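Structure tokens please, single chain.
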Amino acid sequence: MLVRPWHILQRSILSELVRVFALALLALTGILVMAGIVAEAARQGLGPEQIVKLVPLLIPGTLPFTIPATMLFAVSVTFGRMSADNELTAIKAAGVPITYALWPALFLGAAISAVVWWLNDEFIPRNHHLLRTTALKDIEELLYSRLRRDLCFNEPRVNYAIWVRDVQGRRLLTATFKKRDANGRDEIIAQAEIAELTVDLEGETVWVEMWQGDMSKDGGATYFSFDKEKVPLPLPPLGAARKVRARELTNSQILVRRQELLDKIAELETKQRSRAAENPPQEGWPKNETQREKGLTSAPKLPPETELKFLYKELYELDTEYATRPALALGCLFFVLIGCPVAIWFHKRDFLSAFVTCFLPIVIVYYPLMMFGINLGKEGRVNPMYMMWTGNLVLGLVGLILLWRLTRR
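Here you go.
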């Protein structure tokens, strides 16, 4: 069977694209992951074991951002080299249209876009959720790591603080504990020569076991010394009580949660209209005065207007995340449309010039449009289903114009 020469050519181009893409992706992802680990370790005081656990969890979250840039780099290197070595000139001289040399890049860009789309559907959200909950699973080691680094643990969201002189293994030396009440006043103050921390995840409690110390309670009203004392503290809200973000939900979970929010919004709006029709507000009469007249003593509920505002805010975030994932994934294909003709035209220069020439307008135009759409979508000011595709539309139009000019020349 006679094999057409451009079929062999396409396989050769595709092989080179894949090789350059894989090497560049490995290098760029490694740099970003290491930078992310260092930043997280500096912020949280993570130990070596926790850093090792974070490595496979950080990599998938970087792929939607590293893959498009890496694809553009691979195209710039491959077609820039082919143009500089006059391979494209030889292809045209042999009567093979230049478009046949571009098909492997377009095919690879479409295939990688489909892979990123699939990763954004299930794998990356679940992995991101696992990444954010890893600290909770090993929160005892996290507390010790923070104390080793800062010699204190004092979080604004936590109603207690710990200071130590030193940490040796699992022992806290010359430790001071302060527990604050709801008004921010010191409820319990304890000082001990030696202390140890034990985390009970099921009971959501941090047990502080102390030896040879003093303790005061109720603002100093009670004071005593002890040889051994054990005090329960609430688990820090580093993962257990946090709200699950839209980025941690799969596409199917986003649709389910979105329908739940729509049902709650419809129910609240219906009740609000019925209440307004039955009890029209009187002029100069406070809205909450009727509750005080009835002598209600229960804790005040969230006003319907405020609850609706929070529900709509979450709804907008879900819609924006759902629209961002496919738009970001297909960016690989549109990057290829831009990179191929520019790399060919820069045949007398190095591939880095072609890459920078392509990437700078993308950084200046594409990503700002994406961020602009994300911010406006989360505020509910635009429909993210349309706004998130603005950057891809601009790249697509410019890429098609460049390809048209390339084929004409």
